[in-house]
Amino acid sequence: MAVFGKCIRGAALLAGVAMVWAAPAAADTIKIGASLSVTGPASFLGDPEAKTLEMYVEKLNAEGGVNGKQLELIVYDDSADANKARTFATRLVEDDEVVAVVGGSTTGTTMAMIPVFEDAGIPFISLAGAVVVIDPVKEFTFKTPHTDRMACEKIFADMQAKGLAKIGMISGTGGFGKSMREQCLEVVGNYGIEIVADETYGPSDSDMTPQLTNIKNAAGVQAVINPGFGQGPAIVTRNYKQLGIEVPLYQSHGVASKSFIDLAGDAAEGVRLPASALLVADKLPDSDPQKAVVTGYKSMYEEKTGLPVSTFGGHAYDGLMILVEAMKRAGSEDPKAIRDEIEKTSGFMGTAGVVNMSPDDHMGLDLTAFRMLEIRGGDWTLAE
Description:
- Belongs to the leucine-binding protein family.
- InterPro entries: BCAA_transport, Leu-bd, Leu_Ile_Val-bd, Peripla_BP_I.
- Keywords: Amino-acid transport, Signal, Transport.
- One of its GO terms (biological process) is amino acid transport.
- The protein is α/β, with parallel strands linked by helices.
- The chain folds into two domains: 7-146 and 293-365, 3-Layer(aba) Sandwich (Rossmann fold); 148-275, Rossmann fold.
- It contains eleven helices and 16 strands.
- α1 (43-62) runs parallel beside α10.
- The longest helix is centred in the first third of the chain and has 20 residues, at 43-62.
């Protein structure tokens, strides 16, 4: 019987704005936790992450658990609020006494939780995108998604290959968008590319035509990159088409879900972005070593939820499986022993790619883990 209990909602948890999924306390369970943005502006991240953790913990427990014990999963919904996330991180450590955490849907919530887990010595595998999560390296903090810096590099390499030397940039001012903009500015010179227009928009902005008009009028713009996630990039994409801008538009892996295509509509046609192979699982050749993992996850997620797969749920799958394998190798529930084994992760094939961690690299992915995708006919395709 799976040790994964009912959904509990109520005033006991920050006046009813939080949600906990938990199993009944038992001596033969291993407690792991998460604070995810299941509701709120980043629910497109947190909801598939929570669903993934739920269904795979259930699966693992049905298969016998880990080290002879059942997993007890405790999930809090922080609604993308950094203050709530920090509160829940403290609760996971002090009240729930978890041995490890997989979570942190956004960069903002992740950065708020890191000091709590570092101080407590609890291994934390974040699902957020920004490179600041693991650079500089922190003893107990890891992450599964590709970084924003890698996204910049993958996009600029594609632009360079196409001879695109002058570009515009329009970035969200939230945690991820701000961080990716900074990373792009740092590495763009390595590719012989010049940013001739640099615009930003706020998280509540609903019309980016003024900024895009400035970019359109900038001399010699050959392509545009949009660091950001959430609804902002979809608005940018729609405004882009409305203004008749014809140069290529690149988005980040922060929009790598079907919801972006749905929000952007026909305007998404031709948009390029770096993402994991998960979005094109069925289109991969049988010889691709990642195909079995991504098709397996995709099939299970879509069958269980009735929803299209996203890379964000895949990040949760990777984080949970990296943790489980580390606990098996450690043969222990000691957080420090688990941390040490996470850091030794080598050759792990996940939905994001092959993971090889080290004391100097708490993510373990390289640029080969990214695929360049293009939206065609309302669906993801491998870019040519």
